[in-house]
Amino acid sequence: MPAVLLSSRPVAGALMGAGDVIAQQLVEQRGLHGHHSQRTLKMTAIGFCFVGPIVGGWYRILDRLIPGATKAVAVKKMMLDQGAFAPCFLGCFLAITGVVNGLSVEQNWAKIQQDYVDALLTNYCIWPPVQIANFYFVPLVHRLAVVQCVAIVWNCYLSWKANRL
Asked: Which residues contact 4 (CB under 8 A, 6 or more apart)?
């Protein structure tokens, strides 16, 4: 397994878990006694098993599809990332979260329909400038870690959005 995937799994898992803790404590204000540890473990597992490998692999594919490190290349990568990958990834993330949370197929589909457009539009407000900088300044082996560090707030939003029933 490539080093980028091995290193991305724990980082993505830990930061997805941290995002959930922040969502529960700061956004939802559950307090320590009201914290849902199982939910945090589920989000950590999704980061470890899904986010880390998929996003890490996507960055390697993107580097092969659009080689180089110029500003124009960074913009092209961002356009492909945000135009093709982000919509698919976000839909899959919401679906996986629904399955992990035990939703029926009908409930999961209704939740995706309720949350997808808002989450995608929020994504487009945050990620294009982050990704241009990431693709231009950051070497491939560190891109997922950089994105996941920036994504701590995004992970908090996704956890809140995905776990709102």
From this structure: 56, 59, 60, 140, 141, 144
**3-class secondary-structure state, position 141:** helix
70 secondary structure, DSSP code: S
How many residues does this entry show for the chain?
A: 165
Contacts of 28 (CB under 8 A, 6+ apart): 160
| Extents of the domains making up the chain | 3-163
* Cβ-contact 115, 162 below 8 angstroms: yes
- The structure's pTM equals 0.87
Per-residue pLDDT, averaged over 99-107, amounts to: 96
Where are any strands of DSSP class E within the chain? none
55 close to 158: Cβ distance less than 8 angstroms: no
Distance of alpha carbon 39 from the chain centroid: 16
Residue 128, amino acid: P
